Task: inverse folding
């Protein structure tokens, strides 16, 4: 009985410590429970995806991770009074693979029903567009002309647009590149008809690679959200409230501007 009483006292003190460390916010009611679920070994392991330049890149001088997802991870840690460990990945598909190895506690990935089997998502904090890029001399002039027999589309393996196109395409075939930043190079090297990807990445590639052009418009909307593994009910509730605060306060807008990201739209408030 004495041992049980001591454990109860220790648990109470830990929860009180978490509550005292966390700054005031709309999510304070669940902060202690969320901290216990989102902090493995006393720190938050945050998966950072370099495959999407809207979310994260490396600093050109220091090589350190930077971007809106890095800023959000660190702000979450500050609010919960916990250290943050950045777990770095080259592609969204590799982030999902990392879940199987219990390698992270939170992640920044696009909402997709295939991922929702094992992952809980918040509402999106930013919305970006999926676009197509083709060789300059291609006869394809619009998004509606892509899904045809004989058309091969380079995609980043496991990316949101890979998952989407795998469900939606009826005629065109997908050719998977190891990571999203290598999609255009894969298209060129294999003489494929189309490359698909995040619009900002393709715009950058169009400046880097001669003889290619972007198709106008978009073929999909990509909703970027925060995520945590299934089974962390208090954690996902806290993250959902946190994301809404970050959008409403202007934190996400300021982070995108600070990192020079254009063309991304702040997601509307969750319903």
Result:
């Amino acid at each position: 009985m004495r041992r049980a009483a001591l454990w109860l006292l220790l648990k109470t003190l830990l929860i009180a410590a978490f509550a005292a460390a966390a700054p005031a916010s709309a999510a304070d009611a669940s902060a202690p429970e969320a901290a216990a679920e989102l902090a493995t070994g006393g720190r938050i392991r945050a998966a950072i995806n370099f495959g999407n330049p809207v979310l994260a890149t490396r600093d050109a001088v220091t090589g350190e991770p930077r971007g809106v997802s890095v800023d959000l991870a660190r702000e979450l840690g500050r609010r919960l009074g916990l250290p943050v460990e950045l777990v770095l990945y080259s592609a969204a598909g590799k982030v999902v693979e990392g879940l199987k190895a219990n390698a992270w506690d939170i992640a920044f990935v696009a909402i997709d029903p295939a991922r929702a089997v094992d992952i809980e998502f918040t509402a999106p904090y930013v919305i970006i567009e999926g676009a197509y890029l083709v060789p300059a001399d291609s006869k394809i002039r619009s998004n509606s002309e892509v899904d045809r027999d004989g058309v091969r589309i380079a995609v980043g393996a496991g990316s949101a647009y890979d998952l989407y196109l795998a469900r939606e395409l009826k005629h065109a075939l997908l050719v998977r590149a190891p990571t999203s930043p290598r999609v255009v190079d894969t298209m060129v090297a294999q003489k494929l008809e189309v490359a698909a990807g995040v619009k900002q990445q393709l715009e950058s590639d169009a400046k880097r690679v001669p003889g290619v052009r972007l198709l106008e418009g978009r073929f999909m909307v990509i909703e970027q959200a925060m995520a945590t593994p299934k089974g962390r009910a208090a954690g996902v509730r806290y993250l959902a409230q946190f994301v809404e605060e970050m959008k409403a306060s202007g934190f996400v807008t300021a982070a995108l501007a600070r990192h020079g990201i254009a063309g991304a739209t702040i997601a509307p408030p969750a319903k």
